[in-house]
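pinned: reference chain
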Amino acid sequence: MKAKKTLRDAGLSYDDIIKKNKCSIKSIYHRLRGRFDKVSWRRVICHNTGCPKWIFVLTMAAHGKLYTRDRLQRWGIQVDQDCVLCKQANETIQHLFFECPYANTLWSKLLVW
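pinned: its C-alpha cells
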C-alpha cells in the first residue's frame, strides 16, 4: 500500500508500470526528488580526494556555517574582527576564501596544481 502511494506521488499509475519494460527504483527516485540546479562548487567537494577534514571545511564554508569572527560576534562572543591571515579586513567567509590576498594566492596555486 505504501508503494502504491509512493508511485502515485511520483506521477506513475499501475498501468504505467505494467506498460514499461524498465521501471527502475532510480527513475522513480529521480521523479520524486525533482530537478535541482547544480552548484559551481560541487566538483570541489564531491570529487575531492583530499582528507575528510578539508572536505568538511569546504562543505561548511559552502553552506555559510564556518565559525568566522563575524559570526561569533553576531552570537555575542567578543572577538577581534581582523582577518587572521592578512589583518587588513574583517574576517568573513567571503573575505577568508575569496578576498583575502593570502587566501587568493593560496587558491591560485592550488587550482593550478
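why pinned: The first helix runs from residue 2 to 9. The radius of gyration is 23 Å.
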